[in-house]
């Protein structure tokens, strides 16, 4: 079965089997073959939105180096799973494209392929699964937008198993959990923003403070008052440097039983 009718603008090339997946190759010179009824190029549900800057970059490359071999991978309905930017660029430059039609190709395979190819970042994966109805990813996006913390740190906060969490996130297996504890820690970290700016979201700072938060005698109000007074540089110092200073200022005039050994905590991570 041929998935694209041969015309002057669509030429069937060959059929092959790859890992039990049937693939049909076509040369397309009439790009309308790959458009929907509205005249837009088709798009697989969950695929990232077209980045015009990326399209323009490819167009510049085509003009300079000629058309490179880069097959457009689609499902049996001709929805591009990979190569949509190349398709747009080639079409705008009036160049033909090679289309590999893979019946049964779906969004999960699309995400896995783009992970291996390093084409997608974590936000692309997040939007992919949100569009496909994964509620955990929708909740995660709200968490990320609320606190603005590092993605890897968020995953660490919201996951029981911190091994291979990025792989699980990319493959659609992320579970939004540990919510109360994660929000409690994120709230504390975010409360520093007013006093130290975007340094509150630095990975080293966050991980160090997360360890400090675990101290049984830690008093967050006291810490905020100390930071509010200034005198601690969080922008260009290492965790050890600013923790040495914080240890002195936080423990000043405290009873010994109320003090915190900051350095012993930070050695557990750095």
TL;DR of this structure?
This protein is α+β, with helices and mostly antiparallel strands and 270 residues long.
Question: Can you tell me about this structure?
Answer:
The protein has 270 residues and is of the alpha+beta class. It folds into 3 domains: 10-120, Conserved hypothetical protein from pyrococcus furiosus pfu- 392566-001, ParB domain; 121-178, no CATH class; 191-270. The protein is built from 13 helices and 5 strands. The chain has helices at residues 52-65, 84-92, 107-116, 122-131, 135-147, 151-158, 165-170, 179-190, 193-196, 203-213, 220-228, 239-251, 262-266, and strands spanning 10-18, 21-28, 72-74, 80-82, 97-101. The chain has a 5-stranded mixed β-sheet with strand order 1-2-5-3-4. The termini are far apart.
